[in-house]
Sequence to fold (263 residues):
Amino acid sequence: MNKVRLPVHFLLLFYAKSFLSFAFGGETCVRCGESTALLPICKKCEKILEKRSFDSAGKCAKCGKHILLKKSPDFICYACKEKPKFEAVDRLFPLWTYRVWRKRLIFLWKIKGLRSLSILFARLIEQKIREMETELGIKAGEGVVIPVPPRPGKIRAQGYDQIEDISRLLFGAFHRKICRVLKRLSKVQKKKQSRVERISSAGKNYCSLSHKKIAREFGGTIPESVFLIDDVVTTGSTIEECASILKSFGVKRVFAISLCCVE
Fold:
């Protein structure tokens, strides 16, 4: 596995911010408690995080959740066999489970607004996309990324969106093609909905842009395979709805990548 590196100008900006952060007290690693400069994770724990991002052993080949290999020798979990939650999503690749210190990292990023973590997350997502391109037979660098769109008014109210941050980094740092062809209809925050409310509202939260805008975003040709990116997958209803819309206008395979999944 070749490690993905950020371009020089991104590294210079990163180290400049690190110096300023360190000058004002710095951060503390969420895993080991060691003092750090810019990110709330030290270099040693970052390597552990990266290793877990690409450890696919013992995970369901459909939903990415951990399984007991003795009970599932075909690498498909019991839930995906008995009552599959995904029909439109071909495969889900969560980098981590949403627990312990990984959960704390996501909290600092999403709730506390620690946007410097977007740099780390974008690099790991790009690395995962490259790994998947090789596995799926997609020409390196040609995998198209579709971000799950934010709720209406979020960027205006908060000034940014986490997945949009990652999308811009994927484009700016790694020249990844980003196609914003989805639109969110619901203004309700997902974190304020119960599991039942999320499942019951499925199919009512997102829509696609007009055919003219879709053609423009894709450059006139609908790609056969796309990578749908989101932060945390809880019930899976969001990525399933988005994947269903993507397939309705010609995409054949939708591979979802999330930072975390809730087990």
In short: Strands lie at 27-28, 35-36, 91-97, 144-147, 182-184, 206-208, 225-233, 253-261. The two ends are 27 Å apart (CA to CA).
